[in-house]
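subagent[fold] <- orchestrator: predict structure for attached chain, return tokens only, no commentary.
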Amino acid sequence: MIGKTRVVPAALLAVAAAAACSKKQPPAPPPAPVQAPNQDSINAARAREDSIARAEQARRDSIARAQAEADRLRAAHDAAVNTLTQVIHFDFDSDALTDEAKAALDAKIPILNANPGVQIRIAGNTDERGSDEYNQALGQRRAAAAKRYLTQHGIADNRIEIISYGEERPVAQGHDESAWSQNRRDEFEITAGADDIKGVQ
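subagent[fold] -> orchestrator:
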């Protein structure tokens, strides 16, 4: 009886030890070895990077071209406006167009032809010598002379308005030929279509 009692506890100890061993967690598997990328994947990554870089460069180039074109159009517009508004001058007591005046008017003609929506006003001016009435009439003749030249070269009459200011609006204050020569002039103002003016190539 005593021998059986000793065997039972020994058997219980063995079962408990086995149960304890069965509760231990198995060890974690070792990490998978990191494989070096093969040449194909390297080439594919480089191709993607190159494609992105080309697309970005193309975008920058497109923006630069658009800006350059906008700058060119603005410069052409400004040059055309400057040409259209260029003043012409006259000799003393004369409404005859000088060669310089004709050259300035000739430069206006292709711009007016290329921009049919543009309308202008020509204002005739004189120096201070002569009566107010005489200078008013002389200024009108000067404006009419420039208009006549333009209409004779194909610009529609209804696109050109004329006015005279006589001696009322001098640009140079003085009482000598230096001032008078600047005041004997026709001024040109764009009255319609200024924003849409395109330069002439």
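orchestrator: received. Logging for downstream: Residues 1-5 have pLDDT under 50 and may be disordered. Residues 39-84 form the longest helix (46 residues).
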